[in-house]
Design brief:
By secondary structure, the protein is an alpha+beta fold. It has 10 helices and 10 strands. It folds into 2 domains: 2-193, Glutamine Phosphoribosylpyrophosphate, subunit 1, domain 1 (4-Layer Sandwich), CATH 3.60.20.10; 218-310. A 6-stranded antiparallel sheet has the order 7-8-1-2-9-10, covered by helices on one side. Strands 3-4-5-6 form a 4-stranded antiparallel sheet, covered by helices on one side. Strand 7 and strand 8 (112-116) form a beta hairpin. The relative contact order is 0.11.
């Protein structure tokens, strides 16, 4: 009822998994990952414990193939499981039980593995791997491209409902299992949708925009929140926020923060233009900007100037 793709990016070391299923919330069952450890998929008649237990075994230094075998030995129904593990070295372990429902299959590539069951036809899994291998962009975009190729090849024979993407860093954040939130690069889920893969692709693009905005806005030492200063950061940050605003489309968040950035750096005319555009889309920003004076992000005079532009 699910097809999944696990991969390691040889250039960055990132690890990722993407899945689609005719089942509510595939990401809460199938997709598992931990920075500096590996990724895991547990599907068919899925047993969730394969995910966290598989990661624990790989974290302890056990090779994926041995980790899979160990968990299968402890499973009373291995014949209905479809499982894959991939670690930070690109090593792979997998299992496809004899009673998993077809069409089904597994395709192994270079530091990547595709697997699926209850599929429309035998080409879905090879298409999943080909779509990934032939795509451009970072790991997240290529994983979603793989899902799209699998859907175009027929996908789940019962239809589509949910999709998930999880990408983590190849190296841990230093605290290991004590800080599982460290190293998460993408964690996106479409729980219930008529076209979940397309929706997941849209969310990845939107996430790109929010990442650009966050790098500028939420850096406590950066040009928006940190100490006022002159230097080369303004131009790069203004460019990042402009790109983010384009990605966010009708959401004025990046445009608003670009107005704040320009106001802080003495670009009053451009700040007023940007704030006017943002407040037209969300009039409540005229009230919100006042709070930035209380937080010592803008001066009262800068707030007044922006509010004048919004009226």
């Amino acid at each position: 009822m699910t097809f999944s793709l696990l991969a390691r990016d040889a250039a960055t070391g990132q690890l990722g998994i993407a899945s689609q299923s005719h089942y509510l919330g595939v990401g809460s069952v199938v997709t598992w990952a931990e920075a500096g450890v590996g990724v895991a998929a547990t599907q068919a008649f899925a047993l969730r414990s394969y995910g966290p237990r598989g990661l624990a075994l790989m974290r302890a230094g056990i090779a994926p193939v041995d980790a899979v075998d160990q968990l299968l030995d402890e499973d009373t129904h291995p014949e209905i499981r479809q499982v894959a593990f991939l670690d930070t070295e690109g090593r792979i372990g997998f299992h496809c039980g004899r009673r998993c429902v077809g069409a089904l299959g597994v395709a192994v590539g270079d530091q990547a593995i595709a697997l699926g069951n209850m599929l429309d036809n035998d080409d879905v899994v090879p298409a999943l791997l080909r779509g990934f291998e032939q795509a451009d962009g970072d790991l997240a975009h290529r994983l979603v491209a793989g899902l799209a190729a699998a859907e175009n090849a027929g996908g789940d024979i019962r239809g589509s409902q949910s999709a998930a993407l999880l990408v983590v860093a190849g190296r841990g954040g230093g605290a290991g299992a004590e800080a599982p939130w460290d190293g998460i690069i993408r964690d996106l889920r479409v729980e219930d949708h008529s076209d979940p893969v397309n929706e997941l692709s849209r969310l990845v693009r939107l996430s790109d925009g929010f990442d650009r905005m966050s790098r500028v806005v939420f850096d406590p030492d950066g040009a928006v929140v940190g100490e006022r200063r002159c230097g080369p950061d303004f131009g790069a940050d203004a460019h990042e926020l402009a790109d983010a605003a384009s990605a966010l489309d009708s959401n004025p968040e990046a445009t608003f923060w670009s107005a704040v950035l320009h106001a802080r750096w003495g670009q009053a005319d451009e700040a007023r233009r940007l704030f006017s555009a943002a407040s037209q889309q969300n009039p409540r920003l005229e009230r919100f900007v006042g709070y930035l004076s209380e937080a010592a992000i803008l001066t009262p005079d800068e707030v007044a100037s922006l509010r004048d532009a919004g009226r």
